[in-house]
């Protein structure tokens, strides 16, 4: 089932085109990466998909329902997610738990399933041991990780991630890619992720969309190259 549909999308900032004629789909269970040089309008494309920016030509839509016919849920990690400022909740564990309350449990206590989700999410980003720390005491990279853990805890159908591994070492990145692959292949989640690490991640993904500069364009305008990556590793 198609979760994202982008058709002939072009985007201009003022009169300058930055994206031209972008067409692709993302399906349930598919892990897609989006790459391109700095300024290739990767973030612009993600924001257009999310409806935060409106393309001047073409369209980008997200399905309203998931493959089970329920309301489709989205987990979005913008760039520099770690610069967020949180006054409350103040502890790592509470912050990630608050992601579970988003699942409509405002008046209920979290149950065992919720706690398992929260623990797994924190473990997956290597932050379980730091669960009782105050958020104000964390480094920028650690804040980035707990923000990702909160997204995992919300258990969305569609992950939209803008350079989530910035500041992670190689080992953490590998663990993170494995987790994403597991989510797409075992839990049927759809993932679109902007990254500069496309050599490292190759074996985990299904589809690689590269934004390439248009040679005949007087501006820094990008169109796309798409290739399906046969997954090399089984994780
Ligand atoms: N609000 C804006 N107004 C005008 N131009 C903008 C605006 N936001 C971005 N741009 C320009 O549009 C182009 C694409 O920006 P965008 O942030 O989408 O690229 P990116 O591929 O995500 O970049 P990076 O890899 O450096 O994060 C850049 O040339 C940028 O300077």
From TrEMBL:
Q: Which residues form the ABC transporter domain?
A: 4-234
Q: Which domain of life is it from?
A: Bacteria
Q: Name one GO molecular function term.
A: ATP hydrolysis activity
Q: What InterPro entries does the record point to?
A: AAA+_ATPase, ABC_transporter-like_ATP-bd, ABC_transporter-like_CS, Metal_Ion_Import_ABC, P-loop_NTPase
Where does this protein come from, organism-wise?
Trichococcus palustris
Q: Which PANTHER family match?
A: HIGH-AFFINITY ZINC UPTAKE SYSTEM ATP-BINDING PROTEIN ZNUC, METAL TRANSPORT SYSTEM ATP-BINDING PROTEIN TM_0124-RELATED
- Is Transport a UniProt keyword of this protein? yes
Provide this UniProt record's keywords sorted from A to Z: ATP-binding, Nucleotide-binding, Transport
Asked if S-adenosyl-L-methionine is a keyword of the record, the answer is: no
Q: Which residues form the signal peptide?
A: none
Q: What is this protein called?
A: Abc transporter
């Amino acid at each position: 089932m198609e979760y994202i549909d982008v058709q002939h999308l072009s985007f201009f900032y003022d009169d300058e085109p930055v994206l031209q004629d972008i067409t692709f789909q993302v399906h349930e269970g598919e892990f897609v990466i989006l790459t391109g040089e700095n300024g290739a309008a990767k973030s612009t494309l993600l924001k257009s998909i999310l409806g935060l920016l409106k393309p001047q030509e073409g369209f980008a839509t997200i399905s309203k329902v998931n493959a089970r016919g329920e309301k489709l849920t989205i987990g979005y990690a913008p760039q520099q997610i770690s610069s967020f400022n949180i006054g409350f909740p103040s502890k790592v564990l509470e912050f990630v738990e608050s992601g579970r309350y988003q699942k409509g449990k405002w008046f209920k206590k979290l149950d065992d399933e919720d706690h398992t989700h929260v623990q797994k999410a924190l473990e997956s980003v290597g932050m379980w041991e730091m669960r009782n720390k105050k958020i104000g005491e964390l480094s920028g990279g650690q804040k980035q990780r707990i923000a990702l853990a909160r997204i995992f805890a919300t258990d969305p159908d569609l992950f939209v991630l803008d350079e989530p591994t910035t500041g992670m070492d190689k080992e953490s990145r590998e663990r993170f890619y494995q987790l994403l692959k597991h989510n797409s292949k075992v839990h049927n989640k759809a993932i679109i992720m902007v990254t500069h690490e496309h050599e490292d991640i190759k074996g985990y993904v299904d589809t690689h969309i590269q934004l390439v500069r248009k040679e005949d364009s007087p501006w820094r305008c990008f169109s796309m190259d798409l290739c399906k990556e046969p997954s090399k590793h089984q994780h």
